Amino acid sequence: MTAPGRRSSTFTRLLRHGFTDPSAAEELLDGAELTGVRSDPVLLEALGATADPDLALHGLVRLLEAQPAPTARQELLDTLVAAKPLRDRLLGVLGASEALADHLARHAGDWQALVTYEPRDLHPGVEEFERGLAEATDPVALRVAYRRCLLSIAARDVCGTIDLAETAAELADLATATLRAALAIAEEAAPGDAALCRLAVIAMGKCGGHELNYVSDVDVIFVGEAVGDADETKALRAATSLASHMMRICSETTVEGSIWPVDANLRPEGRNGPLVRTLSSHVAYYQRWAKTWEFQALLKARPVAGDPGLGAEYVAALQPLVWQAADRENFVADVQKMRRRVVENIPAAEVDRQLKLGPGGLRDVEFAVQLLQLVHGRSDTSLHSGTTLDALEALAAGGYVGRADAAQLDEAYRFLRSMEHRIQLHRLRRTHLVPEDPADLRRLGRSLGLRTDPVVGLQRAWKRHASVVRRLHEKLFYRPLLDAVAQLAPGEARLSPEAARERMVALGYADPAAALRHLEALASGVTRKAAIQRTLLPVLLGWFADSADPDAGLLNFRKVSDALGKTPWYLRLLRDEGAAAENLARVLSAGRLAPDLLMRAPEAVALLGDGATGGLAPRGRPQLEQEILAAVRRADGGEQAVNAARGVRRRELFRTAAADIVGSYGTEAQPVEADQGALVDLVGDAVSDLTAATLAGTLRAVVREGWGDTLPTRFAIIGMGRFGGHELGYGSDADVLFVHEPREGVDEREAGDAANKVVAELRRLLQVPSADPPLLIDADLRPEGKSGPLVRTLKSYEAYYRRWSLVWERHALLRAEFVAGDADLGRQFTELVDPLRYPADGLGEDDVREIRRLKARMESERLPRGADPKLHAKLGPGGLSDVEWTVQLVQLRHGHTEAGLRTTRTRAALAAASGAGLIPAEQAGILDEAWVLATRVRNAVMLVRGRAGDTFPTDPRELAAVGRYLGHGPGHAGDMLDEYRRTARRARAVVEELFYA
Fold this sequence. Notes:
The chain is mainly α. Helices cover 61% and strands 5% of the residues. The protein has 44 helices and 10 strands. The strands form 2 sheets. Strands 1, 2, 3, 4 and 5 form a 5-stranded mixed beta sheet that branches. Strands 6, 7, 8, 9 and 10 form a 5-stranded mixed beta sheet that branches.
């Protein structure tokens, strides 16, 4: 007897053998069921070798308790102690699978299936499994027989007798035998239906690919034909009845549970299509209607049950279509859509636990392999395998995938699938989630051979293999392309020129020959520069291919690399700073504007890094003014000073465009900006601040060049329109008014001449042809328009507005804001116009009618000929003009009494109007959404085309690029246009009610 407070020797031995609850285990060992073997060291050692010794012991006791007689119990114990093969297999299953332990407890004699193995039992095929299921004549008996066969597979799996690929193949063979048995039961129940039709069951997915999981939907497609002269309609009805019954036999829950769901949703038209079709109907569908993913699914099609001749005919008819899929018109767009992981559809709490769909998961490997099969299987029949690991091996043998990459992926895939198998085996439940409970993780780790610290070891191995998959997933497509053009390893299998061209076309490159020339120029040679490029390019090419214009992305990258390749920091930045390379890829492939800005000063690439000198956050106006004014002070003359200011402007425009693109596209480090209004405000504020700072610097340069430190007159620039509203886009002119006030003692004519010379020189210098984009100054909103003087004194403005101002001028003054020059004069001008734009008595009805008349006239006269009004972002229904005039009418009416309305910004005024109850919140939301979308469209057009525009491009690639910027994936340009029309239509309805009513 053990002394109180001291642990027994058995307790210590149990701990040493891996038991986590030695006290409970000791009680079980002391029970009557284990009399005679409780102290047998062989038994304890065998239990300790299992994934979960506690679970194995508990299952063993339950199995012994379930034996029908003492003699049966003794037979089990004797065999267990004497026969190591049984001991390892039985205890291995009991320690890994609670569900199979339950089965053995219900069917106490099934342990006999594990006693001995004939040679044929070591690797059974469909025939052996059919014999194991032969006596099952009803769904319940079929489930029992299925579990008995599954027990033998699991036993050999957990003992290491068969590897992952063999286990998956045997599970697929067992599924095949089970489908045949279920169909036989269905046919026996309805012999009349069986006599009318030929029915073939085609396995798809993992069952078709001979790589099934322990618990998985078994994907199938049914094909049926009439027997002899039987009526086809009746025959298909009979085949449908048989197929439905077969599915229920496998899927329905009975006293013995279910086997697995049979899923026929991969059939033509999915769940909306008929369950059974004739062969000709299948062929017609795939020839006319099928999408790329459906041909991808057919890679794994394999006849498994029913009429073997009809199944063979099905495969013979459809397999040729699979290898033509890469030639289809929408193949590239479909591939881009499929390559964009649907991680957002996974609950956030599960993303990091997903073995199948998460980043670096099984789906990444399977998709990559299947895509390469579709691209290269047209001309190479060695790639026509439905099994992922066999296809990966064939791709490596043919040079379509690097051998080292293939070996790493093979190892990672086997580990991840083994994890998936062990997780599912525990309770025989369909799941792809790694458990969170430490006990489950410990059992899982031990089942994979990690014994020292199973939880930590499992986490490390899993993350390592997932990281390998994630890293290689994209490189897999592109590294062989670089090997093909660089040709650095003689004797290695590599892509032929034609295979390389095919792959580039499949990945979205419109000019594969040019793309391959760029790759050769970048990656060939033995220099350090070429070696770094070969490291970077596989990932960069993937990002380019994810854009609407991969060719432009690669060409632009070559230009930047040619310009900066000799600098010591460029390639190091891309290699070492996580965000820089992806940011650069997004910027170079998103359109013309940002690359054009970058090409004029390639060193701006440094802004794309995530280090201390990088950063895409726009700089504030004080910082910009400080830098520009300092550059102006250092310059020798006016032109040199303004060139310096324009150079800063170009760099900062690039910074803003890059931030906008990265926020719109999203990167691995930075998700897509969810608030589209925030991106609009970012661009509007940044470009407006930059324009104001540029004007301030240019004004300082002009004054210094012509008059020294002091101009004879005080001079201020007033921003108008979008400039005054902080809403400038990339292609916007700067609407301004110029105001001056002679200094004390200065003649008015002299002051006026000086002011006019300043304006003329300022406009000239900002438009002098150079490498930097011009800044166009528009003063047409001044009193008397183009007929009036360019610059006036404060008194002249006051006299004009008092006597002659029209309602449209008061309307325009809502946007007036001081931007550069003499701040006190700017304040005086603002005080002068405030009573005009925020009249104390609001607007009279005549003024309201005049504003409405002007708006209607503008809509009819200024819309470009041939433009679709419904897609015109500025002047079309529900566009910028509609929203702005509606908001500005409210400002004119109520700005005197509502302080929040006294702002030059559209969105701020709209929010204030809603807060004051002047516009219902729902309607304000509709107007804001439309204004943001229309502004984004204009920004997108400028980014993509490199020139301003108010309508969507007609060129398909440019339209697709606008769509990507606006958040619409490949192939969804039509959805983008529909969304715009719908948003604008809703906004127009609000405008009709608020503005025109």
